[in-house]
Structures are given as structure tokens and as C-alpha cells.
Please model this.
Amino acid sequence: MDKGRESLTDVRSKELFEAAKRHIPGGVNSPVRAFGSVGRTPRFIASAKGDRITDVDGNEMIDYVCSWGPGILGHAHPRVIEKVKEACGYGLTYGAPTEKEVCLAKLISELVPSMEVNRLVSSGTEAVMSAIRTARGYTKRDKIIKFKGCYHGHWDGLLVKAGSAALTTSVPDSAGVPADYTKHTLVALYNNKESVEKLFHENPKDIAAVIVEPVAANMGVVLPEPGFLGFLREITREYGALLIFDEVITGFRLALGGAQEYFGILPDLTTLGKIVGGGMPIGAYGGRREIMRMVSPDGPVYQAGTLSGNPIATTAGIETLLILKEDPLIYKRLEKKAERIAEAAREAAGGKACVNQIGSLLSVFFTEREVKDYEGAVSSDTARYAEYFGYLLERGIYTAPAQFEAMFLSDAHTDEDIEKTCRAIRQYFTS
Ligand code: KE4
Model:
């Protein structure tokens, strides 16, 4: 048996996957879960606790997906579970305002001061589409700038790719999205100031907002070049457009106040998801009062949601944020864990891979180039990544099942499991 290879079966996962494919598109409720880009049967998970997940065949694995970010405290944190169980006894949803929504709104404003006023929704996508509608309502402009390789959920207007005319035009990047729905979406290049300046010069009075992942984590982890976020802050101010930080991943992860605290750049609007719900479905968007008062029922921008701010989700979100607030040293601990893995991978890869890491986010790119932008990211050898993923999976390490995703650390990752992971990564690169 290969060093560290565990006797893993996936018989039950295979059975469930076949059954799932008969009733669910691709057998999954979100495409990345299908393991398509790593060419394997997805593991159907039965339970999770701390930094471990256990699949339906009984394989226990160290989890670096953490449900794509929400799991910053580790799975099934006792305090969160206890509060959620208690809340269930009072009913699951009322469709009416509750004290917990006031509590979470105040907590979000306290931890992310630029979100003076915020609205809860049920996903990051909903937060993004609502923030953009608000920006358009506030500025009375139609165009939006997004960045190639950044992902902001599956809202029609942002499912775009650069059109034939270089970057200035965009065309739908999904079937079912009418060209009309993307004609106001302009595509720039991450970390490329000139591509943004060009779009503003061509559309000086038409751009409602620039939306950006302050740390790109959907082309793999790509850090903003020094000064890039500050540049976006200035050019949007200069042209009267709003700056939207999509902090669905970075919110409460890079720092308690998210990327805007980490980099010291304040956007006009922020979108949140993942951690804000503590594992339950919550998204949020917010910003200055003068902008958010555009939102119904205060203002003319309509947005609504049956389960927005429901008492169970807000319970999980509040408890998670309180735990993070009570223990700000968590961010140093998280960063150290990620640094250990990044350093092990960098050393073992010996230039054969590029490892980007910031805070508790990291990606191993199978390219000898430095990955500082979209072009660098897509130069990666995705077949090598799939092989690396399988090597780790067979040794009980569950990392992102796609090159263009991030690895997530949690406070529950033990030193022993981090060391086991570093050992397996070293073995991969030297095997
Ligand atoms: P949701 O609608 O999936 O809650 O959030 C959309 C979203 C918005 N903004 C950013 C920066 C995001 O990363 C996401 C969703 N992230 C993906 C992972 N790359 C979720 C995983 C999935 O799609 O299953």
C-alpha cells in the first residue's frame, strides 16, 4: 500500500450518486460538488465534526472545503448546535420580524462598520443581485463592472464572459441568459488598472458600480496587487460609481471585519454570505444609510424573501459571529495553520506549483508561473490538480475538488491533522 494510502471504498457514494442523477441535475444541488473537474465519484457525506467529515462509506477525512467557507469554527461547534437546537423549539420561521434579526443586523454593523444598514437574504447570490439593484437604483445608472475570473453567484447579469470585442463587451456565459441581460455588464481584468480605466473612460457617466472580490477566490486564490483595491476606491469615487466588495468568502474570514478591515479600504456596499449564517442559509448586503434607504419598503428598490432572517438561521449566524468576536486571536491561529500548509507545499513543489495564501485561504496552482491574475490562474495544469486531489483524497484529506477554488482552514484543524496534510502534500510532490 502506498505511503499513507487509506483503504477507502466509495461503494455507497457510487450507489447514491447513481440514484441522485436520476432525480437531481448532475446528481448534485451545486455543480462543483459533482467532482467533474477531478473525474471522480463525489463523496456523499454522512456527518461532520470539528475538522473531519465522514462519508457514507465510513471514510473519515480532514476537511479543507468547510462547506466552501461557512465552517470557520469547524463542523458542529457545540455552542452553535446547542443554540440552534434550542431555537427550533420556538418554531422554524414566522415570516414576521424578530428580535434576532435586530441583533444580527446590529452585530453586522458593529463588525463591518461600512454596513451601517443591512438587509438579510438567503444566499450570497441573492445578496449580490440585491446590492447591484440597489447600486443602480441609487446612482440611476445601468452599467456594472465585474472582473474576469471573479464569481459572484449565479445572477443572470453576472454570468458573463468577455465578448469578442476584447473585454469591453460581454456575452452570456450560461445558456438561458438573454444577451439583453448582460449588455450592461462590463468585464475588466483583476489587478489590471488600465482595463478598469478604459471602461470608465468609455462610459464616464453610465457605470453604477464596480463589484470585486477583494481577494479573488473563485479562480483559485489570487491576491489583490498592492494598491489595486485603493485604485478601485478612487476611480469609483472619481466617476460617481459605487464600489461593491463581494465579501461572501472574505467576510469574517480574512479578519473579523473582513477584507475591508484587513486592507483598510471601505467600499460603498458589501455583500456577505457563508460565515454570516454559521452554516445556515444567510446572505446579507448593506452599506451607508443614504444608499440603503433606497431599499423597499423605505425606498423604490424592491427586494424581498420569505425566509430572509428566519429565527434558526439568525441563531446560527449570531452565535458564530459572537464566538469569532470573543476570540479575535482565532485569525492569527487560522493564518498560521494556512501558512504551515502553504510553506510545506511551496517547499515540496520546488517551483513546479504556485501556492497563494492569505489568512486562512490558500490555493495550490499547478503552474510554474506566479499566479497574480486570471491568465496566470488558467495557465494551471488542471489534470495535475485532479491527480493531486485524488492522491490526497485517498489519504483521507478532502481538499477543493477543483483547481479554481480555495482551500479553507477552520479553528478546528488540529496541529496533528495539519502535519498529516503537510506530510501527504510533501509525499505527493516527491512521489
Ligand atoms: P451562494 O449563492 O452560493 O451562497 O454565494 C454565491 C457567491 C457569491 N460571491 C462569492 C465571492 C462566492 O464565492 C460565492 C459562492 N462561492 C462558491 C464557491 N466558490 C460556492 C460553492 C458552490 O457554488 O457550490
In short: The chain has two domains: 10-64, 78-326.
